[in-house]
Write a structure and sequence with these properties.
By secondary structure, this protein is an alpha+beta fold. It is built from 23 helices and 22 strands. It has a seven-stranded mixed beta sheet with strand order 10-22-21-20-11-18-19, with helices on both faces. Strands 2-1-3-9-4-7 form a six-stranded antiparallel beta sheet, with no helix packed on it. Strands 12-17-16-15-14-13 form a six-stranded antiparallel beta sheet.
């Protein structure tokens, strides 16, 4: 596998091992020939690539590498030429690995598209068939918590769906018979029958996958960090070597200068620093799929966020308990949570969690009966308790008063006995770390912030205003999100999201960051960076690590260049023989590697940032409260 993917790396190591073995035998005279011929073959291969790039007006490390390989062979420093070949091959292997990783991630995303559907046969039995064999009008079974495989129409009386990964809507969506279900949404706790209205290739989930493929292909290639310094460094090396030859009249002087001008600082500094930075990020629960993400993060000036599950928790939580006297808050919440133990509605768990968090003990219910998508009725402690939508509760008790809350809140109405007992309000709240994360990003140079969501404007506007986000775009389809990110300036642009509907825009952004702890597989597979913990502040950590890594890479490159130029000047006067020059160049390489490895640890800047976060007087504080999110009223 390694030989097939990285043949040049394997060949360079093998030739080096053969040379070391031959040095111990009477045939040691062959070592120089073997290493020199191998190096020249590689130089010829790189030279062909170099010429093609030069004809396109591109100059990169290959110019310097070819020159260095040929010069070291000419002066007999064949071991130095082999080292240069190995460094060059290693750089190419890293690039190939990054590209291959991106392709594998896209393939993994495609592999995770629903592959099977449960179809009813003519005799009423259920058979599992490949998704591409589903025909229009087929009757399918969608099991509890299963992804809806294709676009379809609901045949069962009712169900509740989680569409947050598709539309950005954080609240559960109730569906009744005849309603359309989108592929990629997640069914509730009850199995339902559906009728197919679109083939797999035409369904919503597949359209999102195609958008991911197109967005990935549309990304512009990035010029490697070291390539930017290759042309001036090469020019300086040739100028110094040419002057030394012209003044001394000795061509050996030309070779002696080029020996100490080998491009190892350029070949080594950036890859070593980037790998160290990726390792540093991994320790913080941040997976970088490619080293180029670090450079883009360091240069980023615009960041866009999805709302649901990114800036907000993505899970509705109880924000208000509004009892009607003489009912108390704890009694009302306890009765509702006790009744919801017997409900399959997606808000049931949130209500039970709220009671548990407040230390309220739940009671056993008698004769619990649920009307799907409407509410539940149960007898608890000898009292009849009705919980659900306003119309459901109003039919059974008197005196119901509708809650006049903000859109985006889900109101659960409660009746006890024959009287209205109160309302419990749920809302998808802003993450507590969102405000500080945005403040840190601003200090790191990202001044343009965007909120791009599929939710309605009434939901998104309070979030954007409360967090000080500069641009807000609501009711966006996946295609709209991609277009907004493509047109965003200044660049590079970071996109942060977590849902299936975020997958295309994550692939299209210069850097896509997926919150992968609870987010969808589609988002994680199409992103460049995946955060493995449910913590938005790691986005700012990733940008900070990118800044430190690039700074260290540049410091190592410039330090290596400075030493190399100094050695070239000394060699130009004839004070450094070729053998000594090759040895000194290895010292430069070692210094470059040790300098680049500093990216493994956090610097003083990160320490200062951590202190600022822990000290509220040294950084902007999050607002005490934010305006309510928005969504539907009366959604239980």
């Amino acid at each position: 596998m390694l030989l097939r993917r990285y043949p040049l790396v394997v060949a360079a190591v093998a030739v080096g091992l053969v040379g070391l073995v031959l040095l111990l035998t009477p045939a040691s005279w062959l070592v120089g020939w073997i290493l020199s011929i191998f190096a020249l073959v590689v130089a010829a291969r790189e030279g062909f690539t170099m010429v093609r790039r030069l004809l396109k007006g591109e100059v990169g490390l290959d110019v310097l590498a070819v020159t260095a390989i040929v010069s070291t062979v000419v002066v007999g420093e064949y071991w130095a030429s082999l080292i240069i070949v190995l460094m060059l091959a290693g750089g190419e292997a890293l690039e190939d690995y990054a590209a291959g990783r991106a392709e594998r991630d896209l393939k993994a995303l495609l592999d995770r598209v629903p592959q099977l559907a449960h179809r009813y046969a003519a005799d009423g039995s259920i058979e599992d068939i490949p998704i591409d064999q589903v025909a229009l009008g087929d009757r399918l079974l969608v099991k509890p918590a299963e992804i809806v495989p294709v676009d379809c129409e609901l045949l069962s009386p009712a169900t509740s769906l989680d569409e947050s990964s598709l539309t950005g809507e954080s609240m559960p969506v109730d569906k009744v018979q005849g309603d359309a279900l989108l592929s990629g949404s997640v069914n509730g706790p009850a199995a339902v029958d559906v009728s197919v209205t679109a083939l797999a290739k035409d369904s919503q989930y597949q359209r999102i996958i195609e958008l991911v493929r197109e967005a990935s292909a549309s990304k512009s290639p990035m010029v490697r960090l070291a390539d930017r310094y290759a042309l001036p460094f090469t020019a300086v090396a040739f100028v110094i070597a040419g002057i030394a030859w012209a003044v001394s009249g000795n061509p050996i002087r030309f070779a002696e200068v080029l020996v100490v001008a080998t491009p190892c600082p350029l070949l080594l500094a950036a890859p070593v620093a980037f790998m160290a930075g990726m390792s540093r990020a991994a320790k913080s629960g941040i997976v970088m799929k490619g080293s180029k993400s670090l450079e883009q993060l360091a240069r980023a000036r615009t960041i866009a966020f999805d709302k649901t599950g990114t800036l907000t928790h993505g899970m509705p939580a109880v924000v208000a308990v509004l009892p009607v006297a003489p009912m108390t808050e704890s009694t009302l919440l306890g009765l509702v949570a006790s009744a919801e133990r017997y409900s399959s509605h997606v808000l049931a768990q949130s209500l039970q969690d709220a009671a548990s968090d407040r230390g309220i003990a739940l009671q056993e219910a008698v004769d619990a009966h649920e009307v799907a998508t409407h509410g539940i009725e149960a007898t608890i402690g000898g009292q009849r308790v009705i919980v659900g939508k306003p119309a459901f509760v109003a039919e059974r008790v008197s005196g119901l008063v509708r809650h006049d809350g903000a859109s985006g809140e889900a109101a659960v109405y409660v009746g006890v006995g024959d009287a209205f007992a109160g309302v419990i309000v749920l809302r998808d709240e802003v993450r507590p770390e969102s405000a500080e994360t945005l403040a840190r990003l601003n200090r790191l140079g990202i001044t343009n912030t965007m909120l791009i969501t599929g939710d309605v404007e009434q939901t998104a506007r309070p979030i954007a205003d409360g967090l000080g986000i500069t641009q807000m775009h609501a009711e966006c389809l996946p295609e709209d999100k991609v277009n907004l990110v493509h047109d965003a300036t200044p660049r590079p642009v970071i996109m942060v999201g977590d849902g299936v509907n975020d997958a295309p825009v994550l692939a299209a952004a210069d850097v896509g960051i997926a919150l992968g702890a609870r987010g969808s597989t589609a988002a994680s597979e199409s992103a460049d960076v995946v955060i493995l913990v449910d913590d938005l502040s790691r986005v700012a950590d990733a940008v900070a690590i990118g800044h430190r890594t690039v700074n260290i890479a540049l410091q190592s490159i410039w330090f290596g260049i400075a030493i190399s130029v100094a050695l070239m000047v000394v060699a130009a006067f004839g004070f450094i023989p070729a053998v000594l020059g090759a040895a000194l160049q290895e010292v430069v390489d070692l210094i470059t590697i040790l300098g680049a490895l500093r990216a493994l640890s956090g610097g003083r800047g990160e320490a200062r940032m951590a202190r600022a976060i822990s000290n509220p007087r040294s950084s902007p504080s999050a607002p005490a409260s934010l305006p309510a999110n928005a969504a539907r009223d009366g959604d239980r």
